[in-house]
Design a protein that fits this description.
single chain, alpha/beta, eight-stranded mixed β-sheet, 14 helices
Length: 324
C-alpha cells in the first residue's frame, strides 16, 4: 500500500479497501507461508478496473479535491526534482521576505532560468511558515524583482502556480495587496523574455494570474484554475456552502474546460489517481513539457515575445460561445 493512501478522498474509499485487502493477504502469506497468487491477481485486476472507472469519470469537484490533495507535490518538490544548482533569492527590497513566494535562479535542462512559485507546505508547521501558499504584497513585489532580474540578464522565467488566492488579511490590504497584484500582472506583460507558467495544484484568482500572465500556460491534468474558489463563489452567489459543488461545475475550472476555452495551452497528463501516486512520473512529464515550451519560445525576438503574450490575453473571451 502506497503512502498516498494515508490521505483518502471520499470517492477513493473503495480503492483503499481493495488495497488494504491486498496488503493484508501479502502479510498473511508471509507469516503463514500461504499461496495467495490467484487471489492477489484477482484483487489486483479488480483494483485496476476500479481505479480506471473512478478516475476516467471525475466530476469538477472531485478534480478540485485532487488538486488540493495534501500529498500532492508542491512548488519546492518540483524545484528540487527539476532545477539544478538552484539558488534562493529573498526579499522585495522594500518591506520583507514573503516565504509563500519562492524565488531563485537555477538550470533546467542545461538552460539558466529564473524560477518563482507559491509554496503551500506539507505539514502544519510548514503550512504556517509558508502561509498556506497565500502571498502578501511583499511576495508579489519579490516576484516583480525576479522578473526585472530575468529581463536584465535575458533569462527565461518559469512559474509554478499553487495558491487558493492572495492573502486577504488586513495587514496585506494595508500594504497594497491589490496594487501589488496588478503591478505583477503588468510586469509579466512588460518583460521581453519567455515566461512559461504551470498550474500544479490550485490556480486561484489574482493570486495566481499575478505570476501566470505567461507566453504559455500549462496545467496538470487534475489541477484547477479559476477567478474565485468554489467555496467563495457559492458564498457570494448562493450564500450557502451547500452549493459548492454546483459552483465548481459552473466555474469551468478544470484543465479540460480551460483548454477547450483557449485559456491554457497544454495539459500535462498525471499518473492514474493523481500526481501524488507517482511523483517521479509527474516530474519527468513536467520537465519534458517545460523544456519543449522554452525551446519554442527562446527563438523569438524580445518584441515578438512581448507582443505574443499581450495578444494572447487580449483575445481571451472574444470567441467564447458557452451556454450556462
Amino acid at each position: 500500500m502506497s503512502d498516498s493512501t494515508a490521505v483518502v478522498l471520499d470517492f477513493e474509499k473503495d480503492i483503499l479497501e481493495i488495497e488494504e485487502k491486498i496488503e493484508h493477504l501479502k502479510l498473511l502469506a508471509k507469516d503463514e507461508d500461504m499461496d495467495i497468487t490467484r487471489e492477489t491477481r484477482r484483487l489486483e485486476r479488480k483494483l485496476s478496473q476500479h481505479i480506471n472507472r473512478t478516475y476516467m469519470n471525475l466530476s469538477a469537484w472531485q478534480k478540485a479535491q485532487i488538486a488540493r490533495h495534501a500529498l500532492r507535490p508542491h512548488c519546492l518538490d518540483y524545484i528540487k526534482a527539476l532545477i539544478e544548482d538552484f539558488v534562493v533569492l529573498s526579499g522585495d527590497r522594500r518591506f520583507a521576505d514573503d516565504e509563500a513566494m519562492v524565488c531563485g535562479i537555477g538550470k533546467l535542462g542545461g538552460m539558466s532560468v529564473v524560477v518563482m512559485g507559491q509554496e503551500k507546505g506539507n505539514d502544519l508547521e510548514s503550512r504556517i511558515k509558508y502561509n498556506f501558499g497565500m502571498a502578501k504584497p511583499e511576495g508579489y513585489r519579490k516576484a516583480q524583482r525576479m522578473m526585472d532580474l530575468a529581463n536584465k540578464f535575458n533569462l527565461p522565467i518559469i512559474s509554478f502556480v499553487d495558491t487558493a488566492g492572495a492573502y486577504p488579511g488586513v495587514d496585506a490590504e494595508a500594504r497594497g495587496q491589490a496594487e501589488a497584484i496588478a503591478a505583477s500582472i503588468e510586469k509579466c506583460l512588460q518583460v521581453k523574455v519567455p515566461i512559461v507558467s504551470l498550474i500544479i495544484g490550485e490556480g486561484g484568482s489574482g493570486g495566481a494570474i499575478a505570476i501566470a500572465t505567461a507566453n504559455r500556460v500549462l496545467m496538470l491534468e487534475h489541477s484547477i484554475y479559476s477567478v474565485i474558489s468554489p467555496e467563495g463563489c457559492a458564498s457570494i452567489l448562493w450564500r450557502s456552502p451547500d452549493k459548492t459543488k454546483d459552483a465548481t461545475e459552473a466555474l469551468r475550472l478544470t484543465a479540460q474546460d480551460l483548454k477547450a476555452l483557449g485559456i491554457i495551452d497544454e495539459i500535462i497528463k498525471e499518473p492514474l489517481g493523481g500526481a501524488h501516486r507517482d511523483t517521479n512520473q509527474v516530474f519527468e512529464s513536467v520537465k519534458e513539457a517545460l523544456v519543449r515550451q522554452l525551446k519554442e519560445l527562446v527563438v523569438l525576438s524580445p518584441e515578438e515575445l512581448k507582443e505574443q503574450r499581450t495578444e494572447k490575453f487580449l483575445k481571451m473571451g472574444r470567441n467564447i460561445n458557452v451556454e450556462f
